[in-house]
Amino acid sequence: MGRLVVIEGLDGAGKRTLANGLTEALTAAGASVAALAFPRYGKSVHADLVKEALHRGHGDLADSVYGMAMLYALDRSGAADEIRVLRASHDVVLLDRYVASNAAYGAARLHQDASGPFVAWVRELEVDRFGLPVPDAHLLLRVSPEVAAARAEHRARTEADRPKDAFESDDALQQRCAGVYDELAARDWLAPWHDVAGADPAALAATLLA
Fold first, then answer.
1. Does the pLDDT value for residue 147 go beyond 90?
2. What burial class does residue 153 get, using C-beta atoms within 10 Å of its C-beta: 0-12 exposed, 13-18 middle, 19+ buried?
3. Locate the Thymidylate kinase-like domain: which residues (predicted)?
4. Residue 21 needs a FRET pair 20 to 30 A away by CA distance; which of 8, 13, 138, 145 works?
5. How many whole angstroms separate alpha carbon 49 and alpha carbon 62?
6. Which of 3.40.50.300, 1.10.3720.10, 3.50.50.60, 3.40.630.30 is the CATH number of 3-209?
7. Do the beta carbons of residue 100 and residue 9 sit within 8 Å?
8. CB atoms inside a 10 Å sphere around CB 146
9. Domain limits of the chain?
10. Beta partners for 34?
């Protein structure tokens, strides 16, 4: 059974870059790697509804914290069997965002912390009720909200298909979300958390394979 490793962090933290670098390093070390990114835009109707809502589609849907969280959770639930198959056939399965993203952003939107009722609800929904595979490790790509915001702004200017959404445009939300991520990491929520900001992908790959 392969290791299920989740990369978490703010919008603009550099998760995709880390995932690509880590995939290369793991492959060079002889490991077989599979990767998925959530939300699965273009592959899941629930993910596409999320994207549309974040760009002001579907009326006031984006204003509902629990409604949006349910869509994110349903997207992952639809991928649960695929994740299990990938774990059975690869040494490492890398996920760009997973359950902790739902917990961090929803709690931040509600001005709650990691010990609040929303984080508990996400765990009960996605792990206990939907039966999503539990990660073996979280990699927290910790950057300042200011740096993450600047990167998200640059991406929106240079990539035609990546305009900033309602969450990325809310600087105060990003600040609160960073705090919730820190609390989840301190609690080793769901699985051990590792701060990987500035980590060398080759060294990180060696740690994951140890």
1. no
2. middle
3. 7-185
4. 145
5. 10
6. 3.40.50.300
7. no
8. 12
9. 3-209
10. 93
- Two tokens, residue 141: 């790509």
List the 92-96 sheet strands across, edge first.
Answer: 33-37, 92-96, 3-8, 137-140, 193-195
Dihedrals phi, psi of 195, to nearest 5 degrees: -80, 115
| The pTM of the whole model exceeds 0.85 | yes
Per the CB < 8 A criterion, the answer to whether 78 and 39 are in contact is: no
What's the longest Cα–Cα distance across the chain? 49
**pLDDT-derived band at 92, boundaries 50, 70, 90:** very high
Among 60, 14, 11, residue whose Cα is nearest residue 174:
11
Position 94: which residue type? L
Range list of β-strands (E), the chain = 3-8, 33-37, 92-96, 137-140, 193-195
Tell me what percent of the chain is helix, strand and coil, each rounded to the nearest 5. 55, 10, 35
Pair of tokens at residue 79: 């991928």
B/e letters for 57-81, b = 16+ CB within 10 Å, e = fewer, are eeeebbeebeebbbbbbbbbbbbee
Q: Which residues pair with 193 in a beta bridge?
A: 138
Closest CA relative to residue 168, chosen from 63, 55, 76: 55
Report pLDDT digits (tens) over 32-49. 999 999 999 999 999 999
